[in-house]
Design brief:
Layout: E1 9-13, H1 18-29, E2 33-38, H2 41-51, E3 54-57, H3 63-77, E4 82-85, H4 100-128, E5 131-136, H5 140-143, H6 149-169, E6 174-181, H7 194-203, H8 212-223, E7 234-237
Parallel strand pairs: 1-2, 1-4, 2-3, 4-5, 5-6, 6-7
The structure holds 1,4-dihydronicotinamide adenine dinucleotide (NAI).
């Protein structure tokens, strides 16, 4: 087994489930110390026990808790090499039916949560003059999607913040990139009716829905030394649906 991440310290938000869990599995297999940050305590404990990795139960919306967990990771591991801003939620409704609460819920996790984690952990990376930050956008940020004003706004914001941080943090040898997944088989897709998923699949040139491992592999590549000169991009991993 290739050990690209031997002894690297890697924080994955939303790591208890879905794509984040697939990424935690792969980073661990490649020698990393993985810490998952997730607000689902039961799922966090289960995944951490299953993979034999560390975890913090944390709501990334809360900047104080995020700073506390950053300090906690530093106490145990002395450094943080990679941040994967993977946690995200949907609260879909068409514009006229979308409540302000639905709008705010998605913005708080998908945008403010990414800001909180990146602000706290990039300060460690600036001190180290080294680091990799990967944030999860979505292909819907590239083409818009019915019923997802809040989600598309947040995921477009992730692409924008990635470009800003690539410029601001590059001089500290920190690479900042985003991944834009297509439709991926996780609990998040449970809200989409079966017949709509079939229509989606027809639009994918590779004629399949993606697997969590497809996105995890992109995270690993962007976090690796092989991606050392890639900075500020959004990598679509969508079976060719948009790209
Ligand atoms: P998921 O719902 O399976 O997992 C998301 C994880 O984030 C859960 O474990 C959840 O507890 C955690 N989380 C949610 N809010 C949190 C908070 N405030 N603080 C801490 N943890 C929190 O989702 P999935 O599908 O694995 O998605 C991962 C990322 O990929 C998300 O950012 C999502 O928007 C993005 N994405 C997913 C696609 C898909 O088709 N599944 C498509 C495009 C993007």
């Amino acid at each position: 087994m290739n050990q690209r991440f031997q002894n690297k310290v890697i924080v994955i938000t939303g790591g208890a489930n879905g794509i984040g869990k697939a990424a935690a599995t792969k980073f661990k297999e490649e020698g990393a110390h993985v810490i998952i940050w997730d607000y689902n305590e039961a799922q966090c404990q289960q995944t951490a026990a299953e993979l034999n990795i560390d975890f913090n139960v944390v709501d990334i919306r809360n900047a104080v808790d995020v700073q506390y967990c950053t300090d906690h990771v530093l106490k145990k591991f002395s450094t943080i090499d990679v941040l994967i801003n993977n946690a995200g939620i949907t609260r879909d409704a068409s514009l006229q039916k979308m409540s302000h609460q639905q709008w705010q819920d998605v913005i708080d996790v998908n945008l403010t949560g990414v800001f909180n984690c990146t602000k706290a952990i990039s300060s460690v990376m600036i001190g180290n003059k080294s680091g990799k930050i990967i944030s999860t956008s979505s292909i819907v940020a590239l083409y818009g999607n019915f019923g997802q004003t809040n989600y598309v706004a947040s995921k477009s914001g992730v692409i924008g913040m990635t470009k800003v941080w690539a410029r601001e943090l590059g001089k500290y040898n920190i690479n900042v990139n985003a991944v834009a997944p297509g439709f991926i088989e996780t609990d998040m897709l449970n809200t989409i009716p079966e017949h709509l998923l079939k229509q989606v699949m027809e639009k994918v040139p590779l004629k399949r829905i993606g697997k969590p491992d497809d996105i995890a592999n992109a995270y690993l590549f962007l976090a690796s030394e092989e991606a050392g000169f890639i900075n500020g991009i959004t990598l679509s991993v969508d079976g060719g649906m948009v790209s």
